[in-house]
């Protein structure tokens, strides 16, 4: 259930529905019961490849409203917790996403080990961390902190949509400024950059 770039960068949510017919079906009516609504919300979150906002969930379910959607999510999480399910619905990057619980991360990592070529290098992670904590920040400032050229790494982070150009500095030359994206928040399970660990926590 990995996410792609969110709507803030001009990309809509993609859905993958197993066994879907070639012709698009007309939407069904409003769910007949709260249990039906929970099932619909669960199906939407299961199919979504990135966090889904309450408004998008509401728009996808005729007859629903924000309060009913939030109640459905809360009830689903209660069911997941009571039955010790491996998943939970978490609010990240301005939307909701169905995620595996942290204690299962080692097993998931083993399963996905074949995708190691997609992992970020230590240099990329270091650069991404600098952008996350210092944004908005210019390339020259990043290079001053790291002591090496940052151009190729920034290009990689831009291509992976973890970093984006957020503007230009007011200093001479008006260099580009970089910041993180909603994809970054989704990848690291954060609601906003305010949820980043404090530096003193990282040094413990």
Q: Compute the number of structural domains.
A: 2
Please give the order of strands in the largest beta sheet.
Answer: 3-5-4
Largest sheet, if any?
Answer: 3 strands, antiparallel
CATH secondary-structure class of the largest domain: Mainly Alpha
Provide the fold topology.
Elements: H1 34-47, H2 54-60, H3 66-82, E1 87-92, E2 95-100, H4 105-111, H5 122-134, E3 137-138, H6 139-146, H7 151-159, E4 163-168, E5 176-180, H8 182-187, H9 199-202
Antiparallel strand pairs: 1-2, 3-5, 4-5
Helix pairs in contact: 1-3, 5-7
Gist?
This protein is an alpha+beta fold.
Q: Would you mind describing this structure in some detail?
A:
This protein is of the alpha+beta class and 204 residues long. It has 9 helices and 5 strands; from the N terminus they run H-H-H-E-E-H-H-E-H-H-E-E-H-H. It folds into 2 domains: 7-106, Orthogonal Bundle (Arc Repressor Mutant, subunit A), CATH 1.10.10.10; 120-202, Winged helix-like DNA-binding domain superfamily/Winged helix DNA-binding domain (Arc Repressor Mutant, subunit A, Orthogonal Bundle), CATH 1.10.10.10. It has helices at 34-47, 54-60, 66-82, 105-111, 122-134, 139-146, 151-159, 182-187, 199-202; strands at 87-92, 95-100, 137-138, 163-168, 176-180. The strands form 2 sheets. A 3-stranded antiparallel β-sheet has the order 3-5-4. The protein has a two-stranded antiparallel sheet with strand order 1-2. The model is unreliable at 1-26 (pLDDT under 50).
